[in-house]
Amino acid sequence: MPFTTWNGPAPTTAALASVTTGTAIKTMLQLATPATTQIQILEWGFSLDDPPGADGVVELIDTNVAATVTQHAPAGVINLDPNGPTTLLTLSTSGTGYTATAEGTITATRPLDAVSMSSVSGEAGLSYVRTFMPDDRPIVAISRFLRVRATTPTTAADMRCWITFQQVG
Predict the structure, then answer these.
(1) Which of 7, 142, 147, 149 could disulfide-link to 28, CB 3.0 to 4.6 Å?
(2) Closest CA to 27 of 102, 86, 91
(3) Strand runs labelled E in the chain
(4) CA neighbor of 41 nearest in space, from 147, 122, 125
(5) Structure confidence by residue, pLDDT tens digits, 28-66
(6) What is the largest CA-CA distance in the chain?
């Protein structure tokens, strides 16, 4: 059963809000797998409201250390089957959440995708979507952290990002 989650609370009466990237490396969205379940990534992506002030990068990484984030509510991790169960992801400030305030000291990463962002308006698109083919879908092991990180070195950009995944075994 696929789930999807965004870098912010689930929208209600207002549109899905964008979140500022800041001017240093920042985890925009983090998923934490529990000790009993891995996840398989189906798709991820992002959109920017405006180009960053200098060229930047957005990356999808699997890592061993959590960032300190705003905890996601269960309603923020949406099962795409309306009759399906809730997620098994760990929801906490050191688990599944968004908009990091501290990156943590990472000792091991597995880069899964990276996208360069141009600061020149119109030179590159302001959105990106990657749908992984069935044989290429990365699996994030138990007790790991999947992060969407943005680096916009001089001027922050407003971003929305998401990950669509399924829980496996």
Answers:
(1) 7
(2) 102
(3) 2-6, 19-20, 26-32, 38-48, 56-63, 68-71, 77-79, 97-102, 109-117, 127-131, 139-140, 145-151, 158-168
(4) 147
(5) 999 999 999 999 999 999 998 888 888 889 999 999 999
(6) 45
